[in-house]
UniProtKB/TrEMBL annotation:
Residues 34-168 form the Retropepsin-like aspartic endopeptidase domain. SUPFAM superfamilies: Acid proteases (SSF50630). It comes from Salinisphaera orenii YIM 95161. Pfam families: Zn_protease (PF05618). This is Ribosomal protein S6 modification protein. Transmembrane segments: none annotated. The lineage of its organism: Bacteria, Pseudomonadati, Pseudomonadota, Gammaproteobacteria, Salinisphaerales.
Amino acid sequence: MRPPRLRFLVSGLFVLALMPGLLIPASADSDKTIYGWVENARIEPWGVEAKAKLDTGALTSSLHATDIERFKRDGETWVRFTTRIEDQRDEDMAEREFERPLFRRLRVTGAGGSDERPVVLLRICMNDTIYEEQFSLRDRGDMNYPMLLGRRTIEHLGLIDVSETFLNEPSCDDDSEFVAQDEDDDA
């Protein structure tokens, strides 16, 4: 039997081998922006800033939405929904109805059963860049964060420091870089 310290060292090295990103020196990614696990994201062109949890366990981003209704426009399926969130700039509640084309349907299965959600494309400002991203719509009124950013969005942003929050403020303008939705990323 191995001594306890050696067993701990071997176990730790095994875990590090499974997580190669942990061994990359910070200087290797110095050109990437570092985000905290919670950031403010501005919904464009609305201009309201929402608390967003960066969630590596989710693939698709999610936005708080109520009164979700599908309808037809010019033969295409669209989604009408209302979002009511606290604007982080002044802490006032902001509410707006949106209409967006249905991008796809998402089936989510969890401990509570199965659920189908509409997914739409929305633009958000993170730091100084505008991103067009997929957002599933669901009532997140009982959640701490009205917006959840999943891996599809996070992969465009940079790195996450899970010990930090609010490292970057949205500061987009008409000259900001725009990152369009990846057309191959529709599943």
